[in-house]
């Protein structure tokens, strides 16, 4: 993407409902990276595909496809398919299919099919078919049931419970 193409894209970066000051974030068009050290930022970049987002905690994302996120904790993601997440704890994800997640504990996932989650304990999942969770605290691989909401057991306890 060149600068002319980028200028045609509709997107917003806000904090507390107001546009985030441009000196608080950086956009690298050549490498397709948006980064900020700010917390609680909302990205509405649904026309950006294949970009990388680097943020603090408490951020919200709405993006296009094939994006990569490296964030702090307490983030909310609403994305298209083919995304990769590397986050802190207590995040909520709403995605389409073929996603990879590398997260901390206590996350909530609502996804399409064929997703992979690398998580800690206490995470909740409602997924499409062929999704897998790797529990690092107990070295366990869980095949997540199709369209069944589950919550991983507490720290150092293998397995999960069905959630209504």
Quick synopsis:
The protein has one helix spanning 3-7; strands at 12-15, 18-19, 25-28, 33-36, 41-45, 52-54, 60-63, 68-70, 76-78, 84-86, 92-94, 100-102, 108-110, 116-119, 124-126, 131-135, 140-144, 150-152, 160-162. With 164 residues, the protein is mostly beta strands. The mean pLDDT is 82.
Describe the structure.
- This protein has 164 residues and is mainly beta.
- It folds into two domains: 1-95, no CATH class; 97-164, no CATH class.
- It is built from one helix and 19 strands.
- It has one helix at 3-7; strands at residues 12-15, 18-19, 25-28, 33-36, 41-45, 52-54, 60-63, 68-70, 76-78, 84-86, 92-94, 100-102, 108-110, 116-119, 124-126, 131-135, 140-144, 150-152, 160-162.
- Strands 2-1-5-7-9-11-13-15-18-19 form a ten-stranded mixed sheet, with no helix packed on it. The protein has a nine-stranded mixed sheet with strand order 3-4-6-8-10-12-14-16-17, with no helix packed on it.
- Strand 3 and strand 4 form a beta hairpin.
- The N and C termini lie far apart (44 Å).
- The mean pLDDT is 82.
List keywords for this structure.
9-stranded mixed sheet; mainly beta; 3% helix; 10-stranded mixed sheet; 1 helix; single chain; 164 residues
Task: Write the SSE topology.
Elements: H1 3-7, E1 12-15, E2 18-19, E3 25-28, E4 33-36, E5 41-45, E6 52-54, E7 60-63, E8 68-70, E9 76-78, E10 84-86, E11 92-94, E12 100-102, E13 108-110, E14 116-119, E15 124-126, E16 131-135, E17 140-144, E18 150-152, E19 160-162
Parallel strand pairs: 4-6, 5-7, 6-8, 7-9, 8-10, 9-11, 10-12, 11-13, 12-14, 13-15, 14-16
Antiparallel strand pairs: 1-2, 1-5, 3-4, 15-18, 16-17, 18-19
């Amino acid at each position: 993407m060149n600068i002319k193409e980028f200028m045609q894209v509709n997107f917003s970066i806000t904090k507390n409902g107001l546009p985030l000051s441009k000196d608080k974030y950086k956009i690298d068009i050549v490498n397709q990276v948006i980064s900020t050290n700010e917390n609680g930022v909302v990205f509405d970049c649904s026309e950006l595909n294949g970009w990388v987002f680097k943020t603090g905690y408490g951020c919200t994302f709405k993006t296009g496809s094939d994006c990569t996120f490296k964030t702090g904790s307490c983030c909310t993601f609403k994305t298209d398919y083919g995304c990769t997440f590397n986050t802190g704890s207590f995040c909520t994800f709403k995605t389409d299919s073929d996603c990879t997640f590398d997260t901390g504990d206590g996350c909530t996932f609502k996804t399409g099919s064929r997703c992979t989650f690398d998580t800690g304990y206490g995470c909740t999942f409602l997924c499409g078919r062929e999704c897998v969770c790797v529990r690092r605290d107990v070295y366990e691989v869980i095949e997540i049931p199709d369209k069944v909401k589950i919550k991983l057991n507490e720290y150092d306890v293998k397995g999960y419970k069905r959630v209504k």
